[in-house]
Amino acid sequence: MGHPEPITIDVPSLGKLHGWRNHEGSQQFFGIPYANFTARFRASTETTSWSFGEHDGRRLGRYAPQPQRPFYPFPMPERPHLGESLQDEFECLNLQITMPAGSKAGDKLPVMVWFHGGGFVFGTANYSVLDSRGISEISTQIGYPTVIVTCNYRLGWFGFLASDDICADREAFGGGNGNQGLGDQHNALKWVVKHIKAFGGDPENITIFGQSAGALSVDMHLHSPHRHLFKRAILMSGTAPICGYYTGEQYHILYLKLLRACSIDINLPGPERLEALRAVPASKLLDVTYDVFGGLNLPQFGSCDDGCVLGKGQKLPPPSSYVTDILDWEGKLMITDCKHEGIIYDHEFTLSSNELISWITSRLPEPISSETLQHYNLSTSMSQRELYLACESFITDIIFTAPVYYMSQAHPNAVVGHWDYHSTFDNAWNGFAHHSMDYLFSWQGLNPVLKPHEKAIGRVAAEDYIRFANDTAYPNQVVREDGQPDPVCRVYNEDGEAVLLSRSSYSGRPTEWFERMKTYINVFYELAFEVSMRRSKLLSLEYGPGS
User: Fold this and answer.
1) What is the top-level taxon of the source organism (predicted)?
2) pLDDT value of position 546
């Protein structure tokens, strides 16, 4: 395999952009700045110029500061020609763009824009497993060359913290409270619409896609006033509520906990508290993250229901809205999930069976509370392993797969996919169709360590996403012998095959249970976040630093 060679293209109104041409012909550009911001916790604004009229896109851009991730059990292939991947609070708003082989400015190719996951705490487009070179090459091979864009945005305290003080500070800058990272993504989309022609892309033919918190992001953009910026959306393992919602008042409690952890007097006037927090080094904020989140192995941030992020006066869609609400949007939708999504929270399964049963029976009325105990085989005599599997199934159903089912019912034209392939990775998730399998296989970055049949289903998945972005997706329904339509789904199964199955006969998800619990889905969400995040303690000043 030959080494990449340096290239330069012109981006009108911005200047010269340096990048790489790979041996198969794709062209890649890294660290392209799309927005900037003037102070910590403020909204970003779109970049309109480059320093000295050029940008060196031959090196990875900086990415959002984040705490050390305790468990991410997948290898990262090396790319030495791109330099070191470093964090920086103020230089992290950048894009990576891959042009397919043979493409040039003005070609008007379909565009796919990716938002990474990580619970709005972890992750980056810089991960080598997310190198879009592999997907780009497949797009060319199957005759649907597509421009791929990946996006870095602010995370954690920097990207999502809200408070009374932050809200007051931002009133002079357009309003809002929290959700800085989502605003960054919006600016990225605007930048792509404005400049993607220089990369051979069509600004009127954009598909946004993301996994986990990235799918949450996609769903938020679907509900926003700027959904006209894209034509299609792919949600992989996530919808808007998966990381939880917070009111401004609830986020203010987290803010006060953070102040305490940073030894800032919470009784100071608001502007003084905020300036003191802005003076704290980013590294310190990262160091106290796990303390503020009560020792959670997987802390995560959710969207703030600030009445601005989805447009003035608009509220965030509650979980119950997915049961019946239909998006006011003319675009096309693809939604996928994995069979054992909840395994990602395995380190948080510390509730005893007595505690979990007590939570359920105190929050849910009869008979649904007894039915819940029966469905998940919960009893005071169950083993720790049985409790572990019950918690995984409980979280998977409520936070991840039930919303996919509800969305597919409310949007019968949606294209649906399920990952049921059981992982063979040598880690704690072995034997599960776990969270992240949908992108780890399809992005091609792990091909050197995958088995042949794993590469094959990953290839099919990549083609499925590309074809969807090119309006040639697999069908969402077929016609039965009696002439009636039969909705179908793509299943990437435990035998390592990718097959189309009737949704009515596919038994991989407990749809009858989803129907039974949908009346109480908002309460089920509250229960699931107690299991995965100890949310009631997180949102209480009686627990955590300084309590």
Assistant:
1) Eukaryota
2) 66
Give strand pairing partners of 419.
338, 492
Residue among 145, 150, 152 nearest 200 (CA): 145
The model's pLDDT over 174-195, given as tens digits with 9 standing for 90+, comes to 899 999 999 999 999 999 999 9
- The amino acid occupying position 172 is A
Sign of CA dihedral 507, 510, 512, 514: negative
Closest CA to 274 of 360, 162, 386: 162
**From CA 447, how far away is CA 135, in angstroms rounded?**
12
Q: Per-residue pLDDT tens for 258-292?
A: 999 999 999 999 999 999 999 999 999 999 999 99
Spell out the residues 6+ positions from residue 374 whose beta carbon is closer than 8 angstroms to its own: none
Classify residue 131: in a domain, yes or no: yes
- Domain count across the chain: 1
376: CB partners within 8 A, 6+ apart: 390, 393, 394
Q: Cα–Cα distance between 500 and 419 in angstroms, integer?
A: 12
Contacts of 466 (CB under 8 A, 6+ apart): 112, 135, 138, 139, 142, 144, 146
**Report field, pTM of the whole predicted structure over 0.90:** yes
| Assigned domain for 362 exists | no
Cβ-contact 122, 266 below 8 angstroms: no
Question: What does the block give as tokens for 43?
Answer: 């909204």
Q: Indicate the SS3 state at residue 400.
A: helix
User: Helix axis angle, 353-363 relative to 521-533, nearest 10°?
Assistant: 150
Q: What is the CATH number of the domain that holds 22?
A: 3.40.50.1820
Q: Is the confidence at residue 1, as pLDDT, over 60?
A: no
Question: 512 Cβ partners below 8 Å, 6+ apart?
Answer: none
d(CA 409, CA 114): 25
d(CA 98, CA 137): 10
- Residue 206 CA, chain-centre distance (Å), reads 18
Which range marks the domain in which residue 13 is found?
5-332+411-470+487-503
Q: Per-residue pLDDT tens for 393-438?
A: 999 999 999 999 999 999 988 999 999 999 888 888 888 899 988 9
Handedness of CA 324, 328, 332, 333 (dihedral sign): negative
Distance, in Å, from the CA atom of 546 to the CA atom of 386, rounded to the nearest integer, reads 36
The verdict on residue 544 lying in a domain is: no
**Could you give the CA distance from residue 81 to residue 202 in angstroms, rounded to a whole number?**
29
Other CB atoms within 10 Å distance of the CB of residue 179: 27
Non-local (6+) Cβ contacts of 109 within 8 A are 100, 103, 145, 146, 147, 200, 201, 202, 205
Q: Is 179 part of any domain?
A: yes
Compute φ and ψ for 216, nearest 5 degrees. Answer: -55, -45
